[in-house]
Write a structure and sequence with these properties.
By secondary structure, the protein is of the alpha/beta class. 47% of the residues lie in helices and 19% in strands. Helix 1 runs parallel beside helix 3 (54-65), helix 2 (37-48) runs antiparallel to helix 3 (54-65) and helix 4 (72-89) packs across helix 6. The chain is globular, with a radius of gyration of 17 Å.
Length: 233
């Protein structure tokens, strides 16, 4: 077995997917909530100033623009519609070609992202991924809660989830290739190399590009991602 693990936002997609998801949901399901969008801007500023962490930012954004509880059928329908939009206008053709080539080569495809699993699953399915590792949702029966269901899958937490996934499937000795645009995924790049696999910097941020050059990692350019003012590296 061979494995390819991909980050999503700005690796496969041109821009982040979380804020656009919140605005998509509000426009589609509760337009009146758009009047609360300026409060989301304040939450983003609080994150940029390190007053709140990424998990708190996600919970606040969800509470403001989606509400406290969402019925599963309503969420699933919206996630499918959003996934169609993402595939149509927010995916690098080069990334899709790489994913298709890995699939044709018989590689197991894993999408590992800090984005919320309740909409990532629909995107991953359209891209042909076999497995998804994403920030978990909190479900109460068939109702989605605005609180997260576990750690925000970012940085070291993403690496820990990948290790747990490999151990669960008894494939921790299998080399894997990891693609990402951001240096926050350094633990996973190093894990890929240690596995005997490959670290690939895709559309890399300046910090990651410098590190990839220094360490001799492969760099691929699928396009120019839309960077966020709130990214920290």
């Amino acid at each position: 077995m061979t494995i390819s693990i991909y980050d999503m936002d700005r690796t496969i997609t041109r821009r982040g997917t979380w804020t656009p998801w919140l605005l998509f949901w509000a426009r589609r399901e509760a337009p009146w909530r758009l009047v609360l969008a300026p409060l989301l801007g304040l939450a983003l500023l609080g994150y940029a100033l390190r007053w709140i962490n990424r998990a708190q930012l996600k919970e606040w954004g969800h509470r403001l623009l989606m509400g406290r509880r969402i019925a599963r059928p309503r969420l699933v329908a919206a996630a499918e519609a959003y996934a169609a939009r993402v595939i149509a206008d927010n995916v690098f053709p080069g990334a899709m070609a790489a994913i298709a080539a890995d699939r044709d080569a018989g590689r197991r495809l894993v999408l590992a992202t800090a984005s919320n699993e309740y909409y990532v699953g629909a995107i991953a399915a359209r891209l042909g991924f076999d497995d998804v590792i994403a920030t978990p949702a909190r479900w109460e029966a068939d109702w989605l809660h605005h609180r997260l269901g576990g750690d925000n899958v970012y940085g070291g937490a993403k690496c820990a989830r990948i290790i747990a996934w490999l151990q669960h499937h008894a494939i921790e000795e299998v080399p894997f290739t990891f693609y990402s645009d951001h240096i926050s995924d350094l633990p996973l790049f190093e894990l890929a190399v240690d596995s005997g696999g490959e670290a690939v910097a895709a559309n890399p941020s300046p910090a990651l590009r410098a590190l990839a050059v220094a360490r001799g990692w492969r760099i691929v350019e699928w396009g120019v991602p839309v960077r966020s003012l709130f990214e920290r590296a």
